[in-house]
Design a protein that fits this description.
The protein is mainly alpha-helical. It is built from four helices and two strands, in the order H-H-H-E-E-H.
Length: about 90
Protein backbone atom coordinates (compact mmCIF):
# COMPACT_ATOMS: atom_id res chain seq x y z
CA UNK A 1 0.00 0.00 0.00
CA UNK A 2 1.56 3.24 -1.09
CA UNK A 3 0.36 5.84 1.35
CA UNK A 4 2.32 8.76 -0.06
CA UNK A 5 2.04 9.78 -3.69
CA UNK A 6 5.23 9.99 -5.76
CA UNK A 7 4.93 13.78 -5.65
CA UNK A 8 4.66 13.81 -1.85
CA UNK A 9 7.70 11.56 -1.60
CA UNK A 10 9.68 13.88 -3.86
CA UNK A 11 8.72 16.91 -1.77
CA UNK A 12 9.87 15.07 1.38
CA UNK A 13 13.19 14.31 -0.33
CA UNK A 14 13.65 18.02 -1.00
CA UNK A 15 12.78 18.86 2.60
CA UNK A 16 15.39 16.36 3.82
CA UNK A 17 17.88 18.27 1.66
CA UNK A 18 16.91 21.43 3.60
CA UNK A 19 15.19 23.04 0.62
CA UNK A 20 12.65 25.74 1.40
CA UNK A 21 9.08 25.65 0.11
CA UNK A 22 10.01 28.43 -2.29
CA UNK A 23 13.04 26.49 -3.58
CA UNK A 24 10.96 23.34 -4.02
CA UNK A 25 8.35 25.30 -5.95
CA UNK A 26 11.03 26.60 -8.32
CA UNK A 27 12.57 23.16 -8.78
CA UNK A 28 9.20 21.57 -9.46
CA UNK A 29 7.77 24.48 -11.44
CA UNK A 30 4.85 24.54 -9.04
CA UNK A 31 3.28 27.37 -7.01
CA UNK A 32 4.39 27.42 -3.36
CA UNK A 33 0.74 27.12 -2.28
CA UNK A 34 0.61 23.73 -3.99
CA UNK A 35 3.83 22.63 -2.25
CA UNK A 36 2.49 23.81 1.12
CA UNK A 37 -0.76 21.95 0.55
CA UNK A 38 1.17 18.75 -0.20
CA UNK A 39 3.18 19.14 3.01
CA UNK A 40 -0.04 19.58 4.99
CA UNK A 41 -1.45 16.42 3.39
CA UNK A 42 1.67 14.46 4.34
CA UNK A 43 1.38 15.65 7.95
CA UNK A 44 -2.26 14.53 8.11
CA UNK A 45 -1.37 11.13 6.70
CA UNK A 46 1.44 10.75 9.25
CA UNK A 47 -0.95 11.64 12.08
CA UNK A 48 -3.45 9.04 10.84
CA UNK A 49 -0.71 6.40 10.75
CA UNK A 50 0.38 7.31 14.28
CA UNK A 51 -3.19 6.92 15.55
CA UNK A 52 -3.56 3.54 13.81
CA UNK A 53 -0.27 2.26 15.27
CA UNK A 54 -1.30 3.41 18.76
CA UNK A 55 -4.58 1.53 18.37
CA UNK A 56 -2.83 -1.68 17.27
CA UNK A 57 -0.50 -1.42 20.27
CA UNK A 58 -3.39 -0.75 22.69
CA UNK A 59 -5.28 -3.87 21.61
CA UNK A 60 -2.15 -5.99 21.78
CA UNK A 61 -1.90 -6.69 18.06
CA UNK A 62 1.42 -4.90 17.65
CA UNK A 63 4.25 -3.39 19.63
CA UNK A 64 7.14 -1.07 18.98
CA UNK A 65 10.48 -2.65 19.73
CA UNK A 66 13.81 -0.89 19.13
CA UNK A 67 12.03 1.66 16.96
CA UNK A 68 10.36 -0.92 14.72
CA UNK A 69 6.71 -1.90 14.49
CA UNK A 70 6.36 -5.57 15.38
CA UNK A 71 3.12 -7.43 14.77
CA UNK A 72 1.86 -10.31 16.90
CA UNK A 73 2.48 -12.76 14.07
CA UNK A 74 5.06 -12.39 11.29
CA UNK A 75 2.42 -12.68 8.55
CA UNK A 76 0.20 -10.11 10.32
CA UNK A 77 -2.73 -12.52 10.50
CA UNK A 78 -5.66 -10.61 12.07
CA UNK A 79 -7.08 -13.86 13.48
CA UNK A 80 -3.95 -14.23 15.64
CA UNK A 81 -5.32 -11.70 18.13
CA UNK A 82 -8.39 -13.81 18.89
CA UNK A 83 -6.28 -16.97 19.13
CA UNK A 84 -4.01 -15.25 21.62
CA UNK A 85 -6.94 -14.63 23.99
CA UNK A 86 -8.20 -18.24 23.93
Amino acid sequence: MGILTPREKEILRYLRQCKSVKEIGKLEGTPITSISRSITTVRRKAQDIEEDVQFFCEIGYASIEKGHLKFLTPNRDPKALSRKRE
